[in-house]
Every structure is written in structure tokens, then in C-alpha cells.
From TrEMBL:
Keywords: ATP-binding, Nucleotide-binding. The keyword Ribonucleoprotein does not apply. Belongs to the CbbQ/NirQ/NorQ/GpvN family. InterPro entries: ATPase_dyneun-rel_AAA (IPR011704), CbbQ/NirQ/NorQ/GpvN (IPR050764), CbbQ_C (IPR013615), P-loop_NTPase (IPR027417). Residues 173-256 form the CbbQ/NirQ/NorQ C-terminal domain. This is AAA family ATPase. It holds the Pfam family AAA_5. The keyword Transmembrane does not apply. GO terms for molecular function: ATP binding; ATP hydrolysis activity.
Length: 263
């Protein structure tokens, strides 16, 4: 196992996932961006010995993108499985990342997979696949930053066991930075403290709070030789907001926690 596979647990999510897997139930991971959802699914794939097939959802995603389509290759028309079909056939964990980005009609294909039927209907191939026991459907979404236009239907959400995720407690988040970027405990703790202050101010600022991902990025900059404030500026503060006044406020918070001078 490399450091890139390391997952720091944050409560009962591993247990919840294992129960859902044992009972062949689909899981919905909720939580802010960069809090470890993808890392968690990869970790569970390793733990359960299942391949994880990830699909990043977006506006234009069609059910054919999920299921597959007929394609012309060398004059022949052949059916090519999409990633969802592959996952069902091989009994993998299928991870639909940011599922809220997909249109409702594209997701309708999941209904028969997320109830007692556990089947996938391949419309154009006229075939019904039965998912093996090891197949699992996992979706993720960030409920805090949805727009009113984009939300999951309650009926869709109720098909899943919800596993709520959030940032790790400060000490553990600092350990992630040390493991992922190789920085010392003191640097890691200062970055985490800086993030905690910004997350607390987040209500007033109304932006997506700084994620563990941005802290790892800053820690890697520091490991590469950047001073703390420069690293924070590039990797944490600037990605949060392009509003000048907000940025000044954030910078003030950062200077209270970190050393160095901004580039
Ligand atoms: N619990 C955790 N254990 C280990 N690393 C983590 C954890 N949470 C976040 N990270 C770090 O933050 C990065 C972003 O996490 P990721 O799983 O991609 O977030 P999400 O999918 O929620 O947006 C990871 O690449 C990893 O470096
Ligand atoms: Mg992710």
C-alpha cells in the first residue's frame, strides 16, 4: 500500500459501508468537496477486494454513456458496454461521482438496480442483466452547494443508504497532510488551524470552505520549498474566492496562522 492509498477513517463510515455491502444496498455519500469521498470509495474497494469503476457525472451524461451503445468498427456494428454495464457484469463497485450533475432522465436507468430487482436493462440490446452479489452502486453529492435547479429527487435519495462525510478532526487532518505531503507536524497543524479559522468564517463569507484537498496541495508546495503564506495563497485562498474584499479577509486570517510573506 502506498501513501496514496492511505485512508484516515472519520467515524462509522467504514462500518456503514460494510453493512450496506453485505446487504447489497446502494450507498449515497454526502459531504463537501475534497473531504475524502473518492479516497474512501477507493479504500473500501481495496478492503472488500472489488474493483472500483468511477463515473464523473455531468450535464450531458446520457444513459447510453452509462450503459453502452452500438458502435461501428471496421464496417461492423458492435455493442460496446458502458462503465455501468461493465461494473454489473464484473461485480465491481460502481461509483457515480457528483451524481447531482447528471440529469434526472439519465439516472432513471438506475432505478431497477437500486431496489430488490438489482437488474440493469440494456434497452437497445434488449437484454436484462442481473447484478451479482458483489456489485455495489455508490453515488456522491455535495448537498450544501447545490443550486435550486440541480438537486436530487427525494425519491431518488431514498433508494440509498446515506453515509454522511465531513472533514476529519484537526489532529487527523494534520496527519493526512504529513502523510500525503511529507511536511512536519508543526507545518501541518498551522495549515489545519488556518483552514479551521476560514471554515468558521465561512458562514459570513458564503463560499465553499477550504477542503482537505487544498490543504494537501499547500503542504506539497511547502514541501517543494514554498513559504507557508505563498503556498496558502496559491493553493487555499485564491481558489476559494475571486472577490477582492473576501480575499483580503482570508489573507488576514492566513497571516495570523502562517509564516512567510506572500509572493
Ligand atoms: N480521510 C482521508 N484520508 C486520507 N486522505 C484524505 C482523506 N480525506 C481527504 N484526503 C486527501 O484529500 C484529497 C481529496 O480527497 P477526495 O477523496 O478526492 O475528496 P472528494 O472526493 O470528497 O472531493 C485526497 O487526495 C487526499 O490527499
Ligand atoms: Mg471526489
Amino acid at each position: 500500500m502506498t501513501s496514496n492509498d492511505l485512508y484516515f477513517s472519520n467515524g462509522s463510515e467504514v462500518q456503514l459501508f460494510e453493512w450496506a455491502y453485505a446487504q447489497h444496498m446502494p450507498v449515497m455519500l454526502t459531504g463537501p468537496t475534497g473531504c475524502g469521498k473518492t479516497r474512501f470509495v477507493e479504500h473500501m474497494g481495496q478492503l472488500l477486494g472489488r474493483e472500483v469503476i468511477t463515473i464523473s457525472c455531468h450535464d450531458d451524461l446520457t444513459s447510453a454513456d452509462l450503459v453502452g451503445r452500438f458502435m461501428v468498427t471496421g464496417g461492423d456494428v458492435v455493442w460496446v458496454d458502458g462503465p455501468l454495464t461493465k461494473a454489473v457484469k464484473t461485480g465491481a463497485i460502481c461509483y457515480l461521482d457528483e451524481v447531482v450533475e447528471a440529469r434526472h432522465d439519465s439516472l432513471a436507468i438506475l432505478h431497477s438496480l437500486t431496489d430488490h430487482r438489482r437488474t440493469l436493462f440494456l434497452d437497445r440490446a434488449g437484454e436484462t442483466l442481473h447484478a451479482p452479489e458483489s456489485f455495489m452502486l455508490v453515488c456522491s453529492y455535495n448537498p450544501a452547494y447545490r443550486s435550486s435547479l440541480k438537486d436530487l429527487k427525494p425519491s431518488f435519495r431514498q433508494r440509498f443508504v446515506t453515509v454522511p462525510m465531513t472533514y476529519l478532526p484537526p489532529q487527523r487532518e494534520a496527519e493526512v497532510l504529513m502523510t500525503e505531503a511529507g511536511v512536519g507536524a508543526d507545518v501541518a497543524q498551522r495549515l489545519v488551524n488556518c483552514a479551521l479559522s476560514i471554515r468558521q468564517a465561512d458562514d459570513a463569507f458564503h463560499f465553499e470552505p477550504p477542503s482537505t484537498r487544498t490543504l494537501v496541495a499547500a503542504a506539497r508546495f511547502i514541501a517543494a520549498g514554498a513559504d507557508e503564506l505563498t503556498a496558502a495563497q496559491a493553493c487555499i485562498l485564491a481558489p476559494l474566492s475571486s472577490d477582492g474584499a473576501i480575499h483580503e479577509g482570508l489573507y488576514e486570517i492566513a497571516t495570523a496562522h502562517l509564516s512567510g510573506t506572500s509572493a
